[in-house]
Design a protein that fits this description.
Layout: H1 2-8, H2 14-27, E1 47-52, E2 59-64, E3 68-73, E4 78-84, E5 95-96, E6 115-120, E7 127-132, E8 137-141, E9 146-150, E10 157-162, E11 171-176, E12 180-185, E13 190-196, E14 202-207, E15 214-219, E16 224-228, E17 233-237, E18 250-255, E19 260-265, E20 275-280, E21 286-291, E22 296-300, E23 305-306
Antiparallel strand pairs: 1-2, 2-3, 3-4, 4-5, 6-7, 7-8, 8-9, 10-11, 11-12, 12-13, 14-15, 15-16, 16-17, 18-19, 20-21, 21-22, 22-23
């Protein structure tokens, strides 16, 4: 009542009340007591990736470190299909079904390693893509339960994302261990672009939902880069300090014949550790990032800066812009 009274008197801004209510709902999130997904994935490694189909919002893909891909029907909490790309104890890879009494389908091609990323095909739940840590990328047909196309890479693949619009191009962005971002044409299986700029492994890639030529990437070098694939170069590196001078600048040595001079060099970082995940808002106005520094940052994509939002603050009143 005290807060409502202060709001009524104009002592508190409307944004504070909105933020407090959003924070209350977020803090009250809990596991559903009505549905629990139990599939035949025991012994095949921990779940590493999840993705819900964008068409019906009904089917959930689950990929494990044991190279097993399961498809769940969230409406009935049952496993519809189980894509075992590498079964335990060196047995041949198979595809089986957990319900319906159907016979096992023919053997599928083994990826040889754990599932690093999954994505449903945009606008169609009849296909999905998966990548593995051994560099394999596969396009699956969910109707035939078969791999219909493969895109093998020379380096470990951590992340992939197919452009959601599919209007101007059908490019698949791939983040890999060799510090590069590759753009693959899913129709021809060929590499069309190689984006170079990161100095460490690229852990996450994400296309802009409204601009099919803008791509965001996050790396172990602590930076988030925004690329225009028509130019082939990064035109922006998001700065967690919004351009402010760093407290501890890195010193760059410049040697001259007379003496050695130390000059401060600003190092732009987006997080204090590796960036592990990126997610755009539906309109593309905001970008949410998370990293190994246990922080989540909300970026105003139009203003190209980070918003004053601390998701781990003990004082919820400080979580507004």
């Amino acid at each position: 009542l005290g807060f409502l009274r202060s709001r009524e008197l104009g002592a508190q801004r409307p944004a504070v009340l909105q933020c407090l209510e959003q924070a209350r709902r977020t803090m009250s999130l809990a596991s559903s007591t009505e549905k629990e997904f139990v599939g035949k994935t025991s012994g095949r490694g921990a779940v590493h990736w999840l993705d819900v189909d964008p068409v019906e919002g009904r089917y959930l893909l689950s990929g494990t470190l044991g190279a097993c891909i399961s498809c769940y029907d969230v409406a009935t909490a049952e496993v519809k299909e189980l894509f075992c790309t590498k079964s335990p104890r060196a047995k041949p890879p198979v595809i089986t079904f957990a319900s319906g009494g159907r016979a096992p389908a023919p053997a599928a091609r083994s990826t040889g390693s754990g599932v690093s990323c999954l994505q449903w095909y945009p606008h169609d739940s009849g296909a999905f893509l998966n990548s593995s840590f051994d560099g394999g990328i596969h396009l699956w047909d969910t109707n035939t339960q078969q791999v219909v196309r493969s895109y093998d890479q020379d380096s470990c693949v951590f992340s992939l994302h197919l452009c959601p619009s599919l209007m101007s191009h059908m490019l698949l962005a791939v983040g890999s261990e060799d510090h590069k971002v590759r753009l693959l044409d899913v129709r021809t299986t060929t590499s069309t672009h190689v984006l170079v700029g990161h100095k460490a492994c690229v852990f996450t890639v994400k296309w802009h939902p409204a601009d099919e030529y803008s791509l965001a990437t996050g790396s172990a070098d602590r930076t988030i880069k925004i690329w225009d694939v028509r130019r082939g170069g990064a035109f922006l590196t998001l700065d967690q300090r919004n351009g402010a001078e760093q407290q501890y600048p890195v010193l760059k040595s410049t040697f001259t014949p007379a003496k050695q001079v130390l000059k401060p060099r600003q190092v732009i970082t987006s997080h204090d550790s590796s960036i592990t995940s990126l997610c755009f808002s539906p309109t593309g106005s905001y970008l949410l990032s998370s990293g190994c520094d246990n922080q989540m940052r909300l970026w105003n994509f139009n203003m190209q800066n980070t918003m004053a939002c601390d998701y781990f603050s003990s004082s919820l009143a400080d979580c507004y812009t």
